[in-house]
Amino acid sequence: MKRARGRRGIWSGLLFAILFAGVIFLLPQDTAAQERIRNYESEIQIRSDGSIDVTERITVVAEGSDIRRGIYRDIPTRYRDRYGNRVRVDLEVLGVERNGNTEAWFTERMSNGIRINAGGDDFLPTLPAEYTYTLRYRTTRQLGFFAEHDELYWNAIGTGWIFPIERGSVTVRLPEAVPVDRLGAEGYTGAQGEQGAAYVAEIPSPGVAEYRLTEPLEPFEGFTTVLTFPKGIIAEPTRADRTRWFLRDNGGVLVALIGLIALLIYTSLIWWRVGRDPRPGVIIPRYAP
């Protein structure tokens, strides 16, 4: 009886070991092998001319699934304002690095902006592995000018990422040391249109605001930061600037306006030459018998 029980215990132990090994074998497929962003750091320098310089350091875990040659960052540059007019901001890539070394990159146009592709045709040298990409770019017309204050409303981490993001932080600097009590810092987290509050914001020194995520972001969730500051720090665009931008962004309106003016000129000339009634002469009444 004791021998039978011993054999039964051995077989139970082997069965448990096999099941345990199977579970351990399957777990990396679902958890450890998941590609993700470990850390997303963004530094934003507001320039005196109203443009902003952005430096993003993105540390990713690449497993060779979606991240094989590099990563890409989508940045909206085309949208409509509250009046329905088209707005097109400028974006200039200043440089791309991988682990501190210059990396190949190229851009492509999207329906609403620009995609910065970090990487070329070659596969990453080691997979799986961690890589830190640094993207530097400059963009214009991102500031809002209001009656009582001006502000930078910036989607620091866009909602287009297909990976979870474990940590994220944003630092915004003004071109001068504005007193702490005259600055305001807030933000939003979550999917497109959501106004989550999984962040903390502080103003540690004059002219500087810092933001930090307090919870990880799921795929297609983002982090928007808002910094308000007194008027006069950045020169507000003139009416001539706004008119020039409007005509550039809304080329169809300009073409239609030129066409309308040309049509009015053409019809006026035709009317002047052949369309006017003849000048009245002497009217002689004639009577029939």
Q: Which keywords apply here?
A:
289 residues; Immunoglobulin-like; eight-stranded mixed beta sheet; 3 helices; 17 strands; 22% helix
In short:
With 289 residues, the chain is α+β, with helices and mostly antiparallel strands. The chain is built from 3 helices and 17 strands. It folds into 2 domains: 36-230, tricorn interacting facor f3 domain (Immunoglobulin-like, Sandwich), CATH 2.60.40; 238-269.
Q: Could you walk me through the main structural features you see in this protein, from its secondary elements to its overall organization?
A:
22% of the residues lie in helices and 38% in strands. The protein has 289 residues and is of the alpha+beta class. It folds into 2 domains: 36-230, tricorn interacting facor f3 domain (Immunoglobulin-like, Sandwich), CATH 2.60.40; 238-269. The termini are far apart.
SSE arrangement:
Elements: H1 2-30, E1 36-46, E2 52-62, E3 71-76, E4 78-80, E5 86-88, E6 91-98, E7 101-102, E8 105-109, E9 113-118, E10 129-139, E11 143-145, E12 150-157, E13 168-173, E14 184-190, E15 199-205, E16 208-213, E17 222-229, H2 239-249, H3 251-275
Parallel strand pairs: 1-13
Antiparallel strand pairs: 1-2, 2-10, 3-9, 4-5, 6-7, 6-10, 8-9, 11-12, 12-17, 13-16, 14-17, 15-16
In DSSP terms, counting alpha (H) and pi (I) runs of 4 or more, how many helices?
A: 3
The CATH class of the largest domain is identified as Mainly Beta
**Helical amount:** 10-25%
**CATH H-tier superfamily of the largest domain:** tricorn interacting facor f3 domain
CATH architecture of the largest domain: Sandwich
The major β-sheet equals: 8 strands, mixed
N-to-C span: 151 Å
**Integer count of domains:** 2
